[in-house]
Amino acid sequence: MNYPSSTIFPLITLAFLVSLSLPWPATSASSPSSVHNFLHCLANKSAPLLESVYIPTNPSFNLVLQSLIRNRRFLTPQTPKPAAIVAPTIVSHVQATVVCARDNGVQIRIRSGGHDYEGLSYRSNVTFVILDMFNLRSIKVDVDKEVAYVQAGATLGELYYTIANASSVHAFPSGVCTGLGTGGHFSGGGYGTLMRKYGLSVDNILDAQVVDVNGNILNRFTMGEDLFWAIRGGGGASFAVIVAWKIKLVRVPEKVTVFSLPFSLEQGATDVAFKWQQVAPKLHEDLFIRLQPMVVNGTIIVNAIGFFLGESERLVPLLDQSFPELNLKKADCREIRWIDSILSAANFPPGTPPEALLNRTRGARDFSKNKSDYVKSVISKKGIETIWKLLIELANTTSATVIMQWNPYGGKMGEIPASSTPFPHRSGYLFLVQYIVSWAEGDINVTNRNIERVRYMHDQIAPFVSKDPREAFLNYRDNDIGSTASDKTNFKDAQVYGSKYFLDNFARLTRVKAKVDPHNFFKNEQTYSPSSVHNFLHCLANKSALLLKSVYTPINPSFNLVLRSLIRNRRFLTPQTPKPAVIVEPTSVSYVQVTVFCVRDNGVQIRIRSGGHDYEGLLYRSNVTFVILDMFNLRSIKVDVGKEVTHVQAGATLGELYYKIANASNVYAFPSGVCTGLGTGGHFSSGGYGTLMRKYGLSVDNILDAQVVDVNGNILTRATMGEDLFWAIRGGGGASFAVIVEWKIKLVRIPENVTVFDLPFSLEQGATDVAFKYRGIKTKPNKYHGIKTRPNMYHGIKTRPNRYHDIKTKPNRYHGIKTRPNRYHVIKTRPNMYHGIKTRPNKYHGIKTKPNRKMNYPSSTIFSLITLAFLVSLSLPWPATSASSPSSVYNFLHCLANKSAPLLKSVYTPTNPSFNLVLRSLIRNRRFLTPQTPKPAAIVAPTSVSHVQVTVVCARDNNVQIRIRSGGHDYEGLSYRSNVTFVILDMFNLRSIKVDVGKKVAYVQSGTTLGELYYKIANASNVHAFPSGVCTGVGTGGHFSGGGYGTLMRKYGLSVDNILDAQVVDVNGNILTCATMGEDLFWAIRGGGGASFAVIVEWKIKLVRIPEKVTVFDLPFSLEQGATDVAFKWQQVAPKLHEGLFIRLQPMVVNGTILVHVVGFFLGESERLVSLLDQSFPELNLKKADCNETSWIKSFLPPGTPPEALLNQTRGAQDFSKNKSDYVKSVISKEGIETIWKLLIELANTTSATVIMQWNPYGGKMGEIPASNTPFPHRSGYLFLVQYIVSWAEGDINVTNHNIERVRYMYERMAPFVSKDPREAFLNYRDIDIGSTASDKTNFRDAQVYGSKYFRNNFPRLTRVKAKVDPHNFFKNEQSIPPKFR
């Protein structure tokens, strides 16, 4: 459309006229001056663009405005007009328009030619400009590659014409309204006659070019998969400006067949329509039959309009068999080219040449109102007749033409997952209904009457269509189903229409919106804004990344499990019960503070669940959007019999409290309820009565103090909250005032033995008399006397059974709880071991600058350090067996000061305020966080390689032992504890990562976590990865040097098999690489434990290729569901499966029985995986619905978690634990497996521990690499690796010793099933039980014991390498490699 252009001078002049004369709406989000500034900005950025700008005084303004308005309802004087229309001719014009509009507060509406039944692309109730894409219409077809590039302003007709000109056997699946623009049509879904064969337009888009809110040009790679997902069916105009699409062409035969058969009621229209519903979605995918009921001369005519990818000779027999009611004859068919079928479907007369598709004259035709519906169940004949009556009634009571279109689903549409694109209407749908009502008379009363009648008909059809919600199709916009204001998008309003267009995909769309357009620049009356829930989650992430591990959203596999776990009334377990948007399960008080603060500041309602009766479910349901603050994990109980008090957290149950009290004393109790599963938080705050009430009153009468978090996030006690609030929470319902975190309660005295009885009375036995007499007795027997409590309430059940059996990481309800030195101090700032750490900015910050990721603890100065060195030398209790002395530590510190004064800023001694913070930050096992655990004399945290050199030389020269901490699992704490005086060389500040995709390599320093490495690789390429572990908080230094295995091991081997070079600092302080260290040392550090030979500073690693999509699944099997059979078969097939498939078995004890999780990872798509496993492992019964196709980087994360979470790996102590490992070489019989199950259950029942095993398959690449290739020897001939994971929360030394003893017992009983002579173990899973040496010297004979188990025949070579590079055994620990000189 080459409209007359304007010139620069009159445009700028007219801009001022606009600013003075336009009738700007009172509610306008912008002003005359902002529009003037917008135009002025365009002039500054691109003078040529002004030739494509039209303002109301320009002669072409109305022509341009009206040219693409199809609905005459919006061509009235009352329709708001834009202040300007910008029609860019190149992409840079789009960039300039977006930036100028954004910077000047001007709303834009993007017009790129979709149906736009509600005119949202060209009208608004605030001042706005139109960004009209009609000039951007380039189309390039590449038949050889079967792709096309089409700009957003091109019409479907132009696209089809260009494809057909290039090839007679290629097409594109899209609509039949050929005047539509591709920009709007594709981004809303785009369906047509090829949908049952090839899906929608959005299913065939390979890439896109967009301009984002910042004016950047993005493609699929640079925009990321989230935004690319969103614009394919979510309405591109809510996120960015679609400039161009790269689409996949599909194959069609040279001849296709079309037909159109009309049926009147007398000719059986009702029977045809009834049968059509049943067969049309099930017909061959090459066949698309649309039904078009319409009112003609006061009666119903149903047109059956068909399109078939083939000739009529094949079509007619197909329909004779499946749909004889049509009575289709060959004479009814037309065999034509695909391009001609488009003309036919668009109602062009037969014989019309394809060039007609190039005619872009597409102005308004009629006044109209359109609606849509989805049908999931067959409508009865009676229902169809009701619909006919409604159509006729509508036609008779209006001046309108009334048509319905029924468009069949099935075929390819039923195979694509609902979450594959924002378009959710896939499997389970019979057909889509479109209501098309149009009229010619423009009188406003006529229009209002017609619209009212359309709405009436739509209401009447409700019984026949989808429900909860009543769904709709985005391409057929309908403001009646919900809308928001023009100038701002209310999230609650948006949820109404969003749930109808997108179902469960709406939530993800809002998250994408928040990420790419957080200030909601791109908006219209049916767009979506960043949700308040999203902002709440954003707030949580900013304040405490670790808390996110305890946050569950509806897409999290554990969400329903967590939600239902404490719902006692099944009335509220229905699909109709409102669900929370988020569940937060804090594990520390600081997390409660964060949650309260974030919900308050983001306008989200919170419901606090702490275990009262809650008969009405008020703690977990609401009619508005809400989150649950679930106190389940806060359940610490401390009984002080001497003071007759107990401190109990709100998530603890009455049963747990009673058990703890009874364990501490048999003459103390607490007056409370008899329903032992109730939580103390809710029960106490409402009163709390029970069998002791007549003696001691209610629970609230025996509360001495409380700890709460108020609305401002402050932690308050009785002293700081005041007596009024303390009075209110004891019986007034704490959840109305604050979050109850903990109670301090008064214990009461009871005799050692009490008496109970239970006497039943029927009416015949005088129940009425007894009841009458009962009311008059002063000492009334309590009605609960004698009630039998749940079996075994006090018999060894120390902890509530774990609810998270489907979580892959160690499930532990005490995860992350930190002890408080004084429980009633008013700590307003969140206690967090990473205070002062500058971590990488969270994904929600929007910060693009490179963050500083070093831990900047308060530094010391030279003077204070040297002074403290003397204090250390005088005061530390140096062990008698010490290999060093107070003076040697002083000399070490003095040496550091002399060699590198800046290094002293990274040195921490015990008197430094940050010492304990730094020490504890990377200790994962709370067994080694006790006062008895030996502490280092100093911690050195180098920030450069030269600092490592200095530390090694100074420690060596002053005979100070160092322990190197670089983030491996370190289950035995060998990197941070020793029985001699020692210092820690902590590598956490050395964490640089450089990825070179061109050379397929990366350089990663040893303090980097796996998560940080994976994030960097994924940011650089979506088809590269590195084979390593799934515990993303583990550091690369320790992990790689011990072997490093993960889900890619069967395809590419271990981490050590993919290391190309390394940089180390040897015992002499030299920096060495592979070339200078020699092959022996390079061999040794790749699987032999680097800390025995040198300090690993950096690795050069080889990146490996992966597909863009991988598939993961997690299938739980109980014993009743065949867990034993699955485990038996798994041993036989898992090591032999395709090398791209890794299936881990995870047996665990849940609720006293065995649950086996089958956790899979596949390098490919689910369709191939399901087929593969159907053949080789049918016992799994894996279905496509069980699979999640995702990117490699997201395979490490819970669904919905952004990759940025990998950058915030808070890695402090989680629980008390003991881990072990074994190797299995022969298939364990079913009887053997059942024995193992019994051992697991016995271990769980006789300890307070969570008990899990992991069985990790070998085979594939692992079987091809020789055992001597690296120190890691467990290669060919191994079926799987077993890891034993046993963890507990209670820190009592007797509990710990008991649990460890029971783990060892189980390990001994496992001996018949695992490797022998020696019984092998995995170095990354250090286990002191298999052998150790003294801290200060390594005895060769002792070392042989564990060395042969970790390294088998490679151990002798390791000792020879050790003798060569560290002959005096400077680098040592309790399981290090000793030097051997012969």
Task: Explain this structure.
This protein has a seven-stranded antiparallel β-sheet. The protein is of the alpha+beta class and 1382 residues long. The protein is built from 40 helices and 47 strands. Helix 2 (32-45) runs antiparallel to helix 4, helix 17 (532-543) packs antiparallel against helix 19 and helix 26 packs antiparallel against helix 27. A hairpin with a 4-residue loop joins strand 34 and strand 35.
Short recap of the structure:
29% of the residues lie in helices and 18% in strands.
Provide the fold topology.
Elements: H1 8-21, H2 32-45, E1 53-54, H3 61-67, E2 84-86, H4 91-103, E3 107-111, E4 128-132, E5 139-142, E6 147-151, H5 156-166, E7 170-171, H6 182-187, H7 195-198, E8 205-211, E9 217-218, H8 220-223, H9 225-231, E10 241-248, E11 250-251, E12 256-264, H10 269-279, E13 287-296, E14 299-308, H11 312-322, E15 334-336, H12 338-345, E16 367-375, H13 381-396, E17 401-408, E18 431-439, H14 444-460, H15 491-502, H16 505-516, H17 532-543, E19 551-552, H18 559-565, E20 582-584, H19 589-601, E21 605-609, E22 626-630, E23 637-640, E24 645-649, H20 654-664, E25 668-669, H21 680-685, H22 693-696, E26 703-709, E27 715-716, H23 718-721, H24 723-728, E28 739-746, E29 748-749, H25 767-774, H26 862-875, H27 886-899, E30 907-908, H28 915-921, E31 938-940, H29 945-957, E32 961-965, E33 982-986, E34 993-996, E35 1001-1005, H30 1010-1020, E36 1024-1025, H31 1036-1042, H32 1049-1052, E37 1059-1065, E38 1071-1072, H33 1074-1077, H34 1079-1084, E39 1095-1102, E40 1104-1105, E41 1110-1118, H35 1123-1133, E42 1141-1150, E43 1153-1162, H36 1166-1176, E44 1188-1190, ...
Parallel strand pairs: 2-4, 3-4, 20-22, 21-22, 31-33, 32-33
Antiparallel strand pairs: 1-2, 5-6, 6-10, 7-11, 8-9, 8-10, 12-14, 12-15, 13-14, 13-17, 16-18, 17-18, 19-20, 23-24, 24-28, 25-29, 26-27, 26-28, 30-31, 34-35, 35-39, 36-40, 37-38, 37-39, 41-43, 41-44, 42-43, 42-46, 45-47, 46-47
Helix pairs in contact: 1-2, 2-4, 17-19, 26-27, 27-29
